Amino acid sequence: MDFVSYIKTKIKIFTGDFFGGISSAIITLPQALAFGVATGFGAGAGLWGAIILCFVAGMLGPKVSLISGATGPVAIVIASTMLALNNNISAAVTTMLIAALLQLFASLTNLPSMVKYVPYPVISGFMNGVGIIIIILQLNPLLGHKTLPSTISTITSLHDTIHSLNHSAMFIGIIALIIVFLIPKTLNKFIPSQIIALIFCTWLSVKMGLNIDRISEISAAFPAFVRPDLNIEHIVKYLPYAFTLAVVFSAESMMTGLVSDSLTKSRHNPKRLLAAQGIGNAVCAITGTLGGSAATMRSVAALNAGATTKMCAVINPLLLIILLFKFSGFVAQIPLAVLAAILIKIGYDIIDVKLLKVLKYAPKDDLYVLILVFVLTVFYNLIFAVGAGITLAALLYAKRVADKAHLVEKTVYDEETMNIEKTLESDYHHKIRVVHISGQFFFGSATQLISKFEDMLGTKYLIINYESDELLDISAIFALEDIILRLQSQEIDIILVIKNDEVLKQLNDHGISKQIGNEKVFYTEMKAIEHAKKQIKLSD
């Protein structure tokens, strides 16, 4: 490549990063302010958090730049944490710091790669729940009242709120809603509807002299160091909240990374991404600003504008700093009702509309998981909802696999066996049966299969043929021991056919082979049948 081509390439890269930084910053500004207010940290902490996290995580993260900051799910979890900690900023900061350290620890393990195994109904139920929470919680500020701490309290107070609403706040809030929802997509590509609503509605409210709640005060000074609470008893108390926050921080970032990979046709290092986010959130915590994650909407805006390197993560926060210092007076005049309208649009965008369209075609198991996660997210606890959803999904999956596992019974009748049985006066207790365990034998199917072995009582030699190559889990091993003990108590001889050496090693390690007799374990069914025939002859 000659010098001129090299310069052209560098200019093209810088131009893409520059416009990517501008595009993402325009989206970041209203969202950071809104999330800062919604969490109780304040608009300034929201904006400075976006600046710090974007720069630190962007510089330390993967090659393809991701724009970071508070997101809807993160804001809801932090707001819930603030409520649980009685709006104690020091406690909330310590919780964020612990969450950041948990992220760093997770980056040293294989946990980052596990996010892809979370079932889609769990993710959809969680995201739909978060979207609805954001919408419900913003109803009060949209109508000129203070934000209430929970969805239930907001819903129960809605009657009183409507009867004492601030008409001026509702007026400016409705205008903001009309702008964010009805601006044409073609225009929205160039100037985000959220920034249009923010600027126009703030100007209009000031021009009309409306008496409504505003941001009022925002500091342009760099945040001061906040000393975390290092009391060991308090740290133990904060751990559950920190774990919740770390999960949301990490899951949001991982999903954004996957979206970025699909757009850029590349692969990022998930461990590096998580470590960078953890360091960024740690810096946010000790500066008392709002932590977050890699933000999908902002990152996509940057990539679509041509961003290709980490320079985008420098331009974005630089532009936000300029706006903060030059227009802090304007920012202080932004009505809270306008921020509420912007958050309602964000909540709507989070809702998984794609899934709702095909909901009636979805399997019932997926619907059960989605509804459980959704209801628990909206009305109880976010992390409990995700945990319950994953647990239910796993149990339903186990049931589906277990239902496929069944016994196939074949009675061995050949001329020699029939003649032997005749001489034994047609004693059916000497009948040879072969039982095939078809499908995976694990904790889900073990219990079902135990009961089915009761039907085998009455035979003399029972050949159990385990056809699968899947290893047995501890439940299946105990179930097999239980089956053997039950049948042996009925004076039934057990013969095993195990075709997989690793499964056989399991049985040897757990003493099952010894329990029935090593000489009664075979690799092939025919060998097992021959052994049973010999035993019948000997007993005759």
Task: Describe this entry's structure for a reader.
The protein has 26 helices and 7 strands. It is mainly alpha-helical and 540 residues long. It folds into 2 domains: 3-352, no CATH class; 405-539, Transcription Regulator spoIIAA (2-Layer Sandwich). α1 (3-39) packs parallel to α3 (72-84), α2 (43-60) runs antiparallel to α13 (270-286) and α4 packs across α12 (232-264). The model is unreliable at 420-429 (pLDDT under 50).
Give the averaged pLDDT, no decimals: 80
Question: Helix amount, in percent?
Answer: 55-70%
Shape: elongated
Structural class: mainly alpha
What proportion of the residues form beta strands (DSSP E)? 5-15%
Sheet having the most strands: 5 strands, mixed
Counting DSSP E segments of at least 2 residues, the number of strands comes to 7
Distinct helical segment count: 26
Alpha carbon gyration radius: 32 Å
Alpha-carbon distance between the two ends = 92 Å
Low-confidence stretches: 420-429
> What strand line-up does the widest sheet have?
3-4-5-6-7
Q: How many independent structural domains?
A: 2
What is the topology?
Layout: H1 3-39, H2 43-60, E1 68-69, H3 72-84, H4 89-107, H5 120-137, H6 139-142, H7 151-156, H8 158-163, H9 167-182, H10 185-188, H11 193-208, H12 232-264, H13 270-286, E2 293-294, H14 296-304, H15 312-326, H16 328-332, H17 336-350, H18 353-357, H19 364-379, H20 382-404, E3 406-411, H21 415-423, E4 432-438, H22 443-452, E5 461-466, H23 474-489, E6 493-498, H24 501-509, H25 512-516, E7 521-522, H26 525-539
Parallel strand pairs: 4-5, 5-6, 6-7
Antiparallel strand pairs: 1-2, 3-4
Helix pairs in contact: 1-2, 1-3, 1-14, 1-15, 1-17, 2-13, 2-15, 3-12, 4-12, 4-13, 5-17, 5-19, 5-20, 9-11, 9-17, 12-13, 12-14, 19-20, 20-22, 22-23
